[in-house]
Each structure stands twice: as C-alpha cells, then as structure tokens.
C-alpha cells in the first residue's frame, strides 16, 4: 500500500523583532516519512523559526503551507488541529502528574467515546491510550518511572516526557527543538531510534533541530544550516555536513571547542 506524501513547506520566511532581522528568505520543506535536520549556532533563529511555523509569531514575510493549504495566519490551536506539533527546548510538562499521565493527557480523545462509555460503562480508548503511552515511555527508557510524579524526576527524564507528549498528540508533522539537549548521553540512541521509527513506520514528517551533529547525521536525510539569518547550506544531510562553508563557519567551531 502506498500512502500519499504530505509536505510542510516554508517559502521565503522572514522574521524581525523590534527592527532587528532574525532571519530572511528561509525556504525549506519537510515531507512525511522523512527527517529534515536544522543546525546553526546559538541565536541563529532556529527556535524562532519553529515559533513562526506554529503560529506563535507572525512572519514579516513569507508563508508556511501544509500541502497546498496556507498555515500562516492560523491560530496555534488550529495549527495543532491540522497536525503540526512541536516540542520545546526547555521542559513543558504537568509537574504534578505522573510521567504516564503526562503522556496520556497529550493524546487526542476519540470521537464517539462518550456514547461508547455510556453503553459499556468504561472508556474504550483509555486502555489503548495507556498502552500506547506506556509503549512510548518504554522506547525512551522511562517505563520504570511511568508512575512517578514528573517534578520528582531529573531534568533529562522530564525532557523525554515532554518529547513523548509531543509525539503522543499523533500529529503528522513534528517540530523537535533540541530533543537531545540535557538528556543523558546513553539515552540519546533511544531518541534517534524513536525518531527514525516515527518517520519510517508511522510516516510522520519531522523537523529536527539539534546542536548534536551526530544525532542529525544518524537520522536526517535532508538538512539545512541557519547562520547569520540566512540558510547557508541546504540539501542531502551528508552533503550539507561536508560543505566547506558549514565546516568553516559552524562545525569547525563545534569541533574546535
Ligand atoms: N520574543 C523575542 N523578542 C526579541 N528577540 C527575540 C525573541 N525571541 C528570540 N529573539 C532573538 O532572536 C534571535 C534568535 O533566537 P532563537 O532563540 O530563535 O535562536 P536559536 O537559533 O534557537 O538559538 P539557540 O541555539 O541558542 O537555542 C536571538 O537574537 C534572540 O535573542
């Protein structure tokens, strides 16, 4: 069975805060079933780009489309409803809920649930949601702490709960803002395996922002580099990471550090 490919496309996006340009003329596409990597130095505008795509900020130029439909101008709620979900660089979870409750709370309720519940006396989707949420926690090595209150867990595990919540929305497109930052090194392969599975098995489209170039190298087919408010390289991941200008202006700095 072949599934139709969808695209989240940014065309000539420009953003400015108080007269200062953050970025200009940024164009790229994220396709379902693929991971697109985005790298760039601190302050390059990567998180702002996510905020523009998600409707937190209105760009001063350019547009974002979900297939042929314009996304720019829609509310953040409407953008989530259309299937675009994002994670944050910092941790945004319900601190007093357990890890499992946090993930379950992000899952959509199914239509007809109320009728089913009335007729059969229990919520059918509750069991399914719980199983799916536990599966996600397990993939991120969090199964053992599923019943623990989120605020009692270390930062890295809270970050993974937040990632699981973003995924649990079921959104077709995921914008992941530095999911590996602050996470213990031995858990990072769990993140890369999960991202790969989401793209390959679930045909989700993923924009992956990361400073950890090894993570990008492991999962992204395409990549682009934001630097000085411009895209300085864009194309196949290997080609971008081997680009002379990218090595000189960005990667050189990381590897020298
Ligand atoms: N709401 C805002 N108002 C004014 N300036 C902002 C705002 N948000 C971000 N900026 C500025 O925009 C620029 C880009 O910030 P942004 O956080 O998008 O960069 P980044 O590439 O995600 O950086 P990092 O890798 O450190 O997370 C920075 O100079 C930042 O100070």
Rg from C-alpha positions?
Answer: 19 Å
Largest sheet, in brief, is: 6 strands, mixed
- Oligomerization state of this entry? single chain
Tell me, briefly, the overall form. Answer: globular
Q: Bound compounds, please? A: adenosine-5'-triphosphate
Measured by DSSP, the beta-strand proportion falls in: 15-25%
Question: What would you call the structural class?
Answer: alpha/beta
What is the H-and-E element order? Answer: EEEHEEHEHHHHEHEHEEHH
Distance between the termini: 48 Å
The poorly predicted ranges are none
Strand order, sheet with most strands: 6-7-8-3-9-10
Average pLDDT level: 91
How many strands appear in the DSSP assignment? 10
How would you characterize this protein structure?
The protein is α/β, with parallel strands linked by helices. Helix content is 38%, strand content 24%. The chain has helices at residues 46-53, 76-81, 99-105, 113-120, 124-139, 155-168, 188-200, 213-219, 237-241, 244-256, and strands at 7-17, 20-31, 35-39, 61-66, 69-70, 84-86, 173-177, 205-209, 222-227, 230-236. A hairpin with a 2-residue loop joins strand 4 and strand 5 (69-70). Helix 3 crosses helix 5 and helix 3 (99-105) packs parallel to helix 6 (155-168). The termini are far apart. Bound molecules: adenosine-5'-triphosphate (ATP). Adenosine-5'-triphosphate binds next to helix 1.
Summary of the model, kept short:
The chain is an alpha/beta fold and 257 residues long.
């Amino acid at each position: 069975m072949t599934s139709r490919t969808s695209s989240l496309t940014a065309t000539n996006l420009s953003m400015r805060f108080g007269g200062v340009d953050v970025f200009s003329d940024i164009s790229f596409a994220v396709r379902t079933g693929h991971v697109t990597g985005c790298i760039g130095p601190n302050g390059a505008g990567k998180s702002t780009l996510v905020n523009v795509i998600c409707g937190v900020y209105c760009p001063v130029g350019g547009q974002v489309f979900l297939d042929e439909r314009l996304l720019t101008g829609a509310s953040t709620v409407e953008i989530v409803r259309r299937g675009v979900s994002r994670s944050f660089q910092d941790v945004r979870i319900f601190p007093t809920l357990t890890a499992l409750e946090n993930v379950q709370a992000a899952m959509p309720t199914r239509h007809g649930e109320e009728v089913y519940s009335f007729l059969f006396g229990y919520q059918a989707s509750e069991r399914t949601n719980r199983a799916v949420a536990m599966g996600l926690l397990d993939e991120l090595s969090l199964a053992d702490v599923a019943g623990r209150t989120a605020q009692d867990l270390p930062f890295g595990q809270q970050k993974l709960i937040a990632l699981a919540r973003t995924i649990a929305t079921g959104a077709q497109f995921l914008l992941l803002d530095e999911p590996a930052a602050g996470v213990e090194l031995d858990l990072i392969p769990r993140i890369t395996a999960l991202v790969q599975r989401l793209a390959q098995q679930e045909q989700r489209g993923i924009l992956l922002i990361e400073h950890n170039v090894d993570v990008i190298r492991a999962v992204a087919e395409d990549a682009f580099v934001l630097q000085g408010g411009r895209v300085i390289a864009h194309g196949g991941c290997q080609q971008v990471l081997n680009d002379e200008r990218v090595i000189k202006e960005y990667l050189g700095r990381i590897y020298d550090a």
